[in-house]
Specification:
With 189 residues, the protein is α+β, with helices and mostly antiparallel strands. The protein is built from 3 helices and 13 strands, in the order αββββββαββββββαβ. The protein has helices at 6-9, 63-92, 150-163; strands at residues 12-13, 19-23, 26-31, 34-39, 44-48, 52-57, 95-102, 107-111, 114-118, 125-128, 133-136, 142-147, 173-176. The strands form 4 sheets. Strands 11-12-7-13 form a 4-stranded antiparallel beta sheet, with helices on one face.
Length: 189
C-alpha cells in the first residue's frame, strides 16, 4: 500500500450548493458562481462521499515500476487534491486579489471590461479583463481582481502589478495590498 502525501490525507469538504461528478479523468464541479473542470491524473484515485472528497494513489501491479514511482504518486496525489480544493472554493466563494497604487497622480479607472491605469507614463495603460475575470476600482488607488479560477486571478493581478512594479527607494508603484516593500537607503557622499 502506498501512503498518501500530507496534503492528500486531508479530505476536501463539499459545501452546500456545490455538485461534484467524476467523468473519466475529469471532475466536473458546479456551484453558485458557475462550473469548472479539474483534470485528475491516472495515478490518483478520487473517492466521492456524501459531503467530502478523498484522494489516494492507485495501486500499481508492476512491482519494479511501483517502487520508482511511489514518490511521484504521493506528489501527484497532493497536487490533484490542492487543485480540486481550489476549484471547489472557486465555484462556491470565488477568489479575489487586491492591488494598491502608491504615487502622486497614480490612479485607476474601470470602463466596461477595460482597466485604465495612469501611473507616470506619457500615456494611460489599458488592460482588458479576460473572460471570467471581473476588475473593479472602488477608489482611484485601489484595484480588485475577482474570478472563479485562482490561477487566472493571480495571473491578471501580476500583469497589472508588472505595469509599474514598486521601486525600492520611495516605494512608488503598483503593489499587492498585503505586500511589504523594504525600502533601500539612498546613496550618501
Amino acid at each position: 500500500m502506498i501512503i498518501s502525501s500530507r496534503v492528500a490525507r486531508k479530505p476536501v469538504q463539499i459545501p452546500a450548493g456545490v455538485d461534484v461528478k467524476l467523468a473519466g479523468a475529469e471532475l466536473i464541479v458546479k456551484g453558485p458562481k458557475g462550473q469548472m473542470h479539474a483534470a485528475v491524473h491516472p495515478s490518483v484515485e478520487v473517492l466521492i462521499e456524501k459531503d467530502c472528497l478523498k484522494f489516494q494513489p492507485v495501486e500499481q501491479k508492476n512491482v519494479a515500476r511501483a517502487a520508482t514511482s511511489a514518490r511521484n504518486q504521493k506528489a501527484l496525489t497532493g497536487t490533484v487534491r490542492a487543485t480540486v480544493a481550489n476549484v471547489i472554493k472557486g465555484v462556491s466563494k470565488g477568489f479575489e486579489r487586491k492591488l494598491t497604487l502608491i504615487g502622486v497622480g497614480y490612479r485607476a479607472m474601470v470602463k466596461g471590461h477595460d482597466l485604465h491605469l495612469t501611473v507616470g507614463y506619457s500615456h494611460p495603460v489599458v488592460l482588458t479583463a479576460p473572460k471570467g475575470i471581473v476588475i473593479e476600482a472602488p477608489s482611484q488607488t485601489e484595484v480588485i481582481v475577482k474570478g472563479m479560477d485562482k490561477h487566472l486571478v493571480g495571473h491578471v493581478a501580476s500583469k497589472i502589478r508588472a505595469v509599474r512594479p514598486p521601486e525600492p527607494y520611495k516605494g512608488k508603484g503598483i503593489r499587492y495590498a498585503d505586500e511589504v516593500i523594504e525600502l533601500k537607503e539612498t546613496k550618501k557622499k
